[in-house]
Write a structure and sequence with these properties.
Number of strands: 5
Order of helices and strands: HHHEEEEEH
Shape: rod-shaped
Length: 166
C-alpha cells in the first residue's frame, strides 16, 4: 500500500511521523521533568508540615498531653491529601494519631521508621524527629496520597495530546 503512493505522499507521511515522534519524545521528557520537580515539591511541603507539627507539639510530648497532641494533628484535616499522621514518643509509643475520614484503621502500614521520606506506588511518607534542648523527645510521621500527582500528570498528558492533535 505504501509502495503504491506517490513520492509526495510518502515524503509527507515520513515528515509527519518524524514530527510526531519528535514531539512524543519531547513531551515524555517534559512529563518526566514535571513529575520529578512536583515530587520534590511534595517532599518539601510535607517536611515543612511535619516540622511545624514538631515545633507545636514539643510541649505535648514533654508533658504527655494527648489533647494538645491531637489538636495539633487535627489541623492536618485542612489538607485533603494527607491520609495519616502519628505523633510518637522516643520509645515509639504513639501519643496521638490522625486519620483522614475515609481511611480505615487497617489501611495504614507506615512506610518508614527512620527519619527521612519515602515514596511508594500510592503514597508519600515523611518521618521527622522532634527535638527539644538538643534532645530527641519524639517523632512525627505524616503520609499523603499521590492523587494530586496523578491528576497533574493526567492533565499534562491531556494538554500534550491536544497540542499534538492540533
Amino acid at each position: 500500500m505504501f509502495r503504491n503512493l506517490p513520492i509526495r505522499h510518502k515524503l509527507l507521511a515520513i515528515i509527519g511521523i518524524t514530527s510526531l515522534l519528535s514531539l512524543s519524545v519531547a513531551a515524555a521528557a517534559l512529563v518526566a521533568y514535571d513529575v520529578t520537580t512536583y515530587k520534590e515539591s511534595m517532599v518539601r511541603n510535607l517536611t515543612v508540615q511535619a516540622d511545624i507539627i514538631a515545633v507545636n507539639t514539643t510541649g505535648a510530648l514533654t508533658f504527655d498531653d494527648y489533647d494538645a497532641a491531637s489538636s495539633s494533628l487535627s489541623s492536618l484535616q485542612k489538607e485533603d491529601t494527607i491520609t495519616f499522621a502519628c505523633l510518637a514518643a522516643t520509645d515509639g509509643k504513639p501519643l496521638a494519631k490522625y486519620r483522614r475520614w475515609n481511611v480505615q484503621t487497617g489501611d495504614v502500614v507506615p512506610l518508614l521508621s527512620e527519619t527521612g521520606y519515602k515514596f511508594s506506588k500510592h503514597r508519600l511518607a515523611v518521618h521527622r524527629e522532634i527535638r527539644f534542648d538538643g534532645e530527641t523527645i519524639g517523632s512525627v510521621y505524616i503520609e499523603t496520597d499521590l492523587s494530586a500527582l496523578r491528576v497533574r500528570v493526567a492533565r499534562f498528558i491531556g494538554a500534550i495530546l491536544a497540542i499534538m492533535v492540533l
